[in-house]
Design goal:
The chain has 299 residues and is mainly α. The protein has one domain. It contains 13 helices and no strands. Helix 4 packs across helix 10 and helix 4 packs parallel to helix 12. The radius of gyration is 21 Å and the shape is globular. The termini are far apart.
Length: 299
């Protein structure tokens, strides 16, 4: 191990973040088992696996040794953004987190704290706003573009608090962006499925523009990387080009998979019939009457 890599790995691990992430995971798993004891088909095991994988990606991006390198490598920084926005967010939504998290909390907390919050007019208005495809697209696009403006990017590298806020906004923007695609219960507004592939296609455009600029620029855009150890024996300009290629290829593949899947479902009469039958039988569409869930209004 080179001395540069060893020195980077000496940076402190965010213990508070790990503790909070572990607590959220325990609450979800507790709620999942409680729901499982009532109905084995309510939240299938694959949703639990998706949620666990999503939380694992969040930890990998922020809580693991990978996070120690984001200040010395733009490629690692880009991997963090991809993990938070394009991988962890959709996996967590696939885990249908609302109901297990609410069931995993102490019922007095769920009713007396989260119940009033979920009934606030502001909460309902925000939920309706984020169900709008244009708003969801803008949230993701602006988050990507704003944080990669050189002065803002450089400032986040120098400020720990701003850096944490940056990670949080990428993750939240990812949840907002993927919500219309995955439609986790209890989403209220459901967009016509034919428009989702178009939505995903247009979502690649800001990424393509940014990655193209970084790949073909003949200088290092973020000067902070000129003054840090070259931990992987590549120049800052090469690292920038690799980061651009990574974003370009990864986003294209990640967005292409759901776009292709949804397109096949739209064009296949048999798949449409199976989808309708599955939706009619899916308990996530409406919780069973016999299920004793907290008496609070969901989003």
């Amino acid at each position: 191990m080179s001395s540069e890599i060893h020195s980077v790995l000496q940076s402190s691990v965010p213990i508070g973040f790990d503790a909070g992430l572990s607590l959220g995971l325990l609450i979800y798993v507790r709620g999942w088992f409680r729901l499982r004891s009532v109905s084995r088909n309510l939240i299938p095991a694959w949703r639990l696996a998706a949620f666990l994988a999503g939380v694992g990606c969040v930890w990998l991006a922020i809580g693991s040794s990978l996070a120690a390198f984001d200040e010395v490598s733009l490629s690692i920084h880009m991997i963090q953004h991809l993990l938070l926005m394009a991988i962890a967010a959709p996996l967590i939504l696939l885990g249908a987190p609302e109901l297990p998290l609410l069931r995993g909390l102490p019922q007095t907390v769920a009713r007396n704290i989260f119940g009033p919050i979920l009934r606030w007019r502001v909460t309902k208005s925000l939920a309706a706003l984020f169900d709008n495809l244009a708003v969801a697209w803008l949230a993701a696009a602006l988050t990507l573009i704003v944080w990669h403006i050189p002065p803002i990017f450089e400032l986040a590298l120098r400020s720990t608090a701003l850096h944490v806020f940056e990670h949080a906004t990428f993750f939240v923007a990812g949840l907002i962006f993927w919500r219309p695609v995955i439609e986790p219960w209890p989403t209220n507004a459901r967009a016509a499925r034919w428009i989702i592939p178009v939505y995903l296609f247009f979502a690649t455009l800001p990424c393509d523009a940014l990655s193209g600029f970084l790949a073909f620029c003949d200088r290092v855009v973020y000067s902070s990387y000129l003054a840090v150890p070259q931990a992987f024996n590549i120049s800052p300009l090469q690292d920038q080009q690799r980061a651009a290629a990574l974003m370009w290829v990864s986003v294209t593949i990640i967005y292409l998979v759901p776009a292709t899947t949804i397109t096949i479902q739209i064009l296949s009469p048999r798949a449409n019939q199976q989808t309708r039958e599955s939706a009619a039988a899916d308990p996530l569409g409406a919780p069973p009457q016999h299920l004793k869930i907290p008496k609070i209004e969901m989003l």
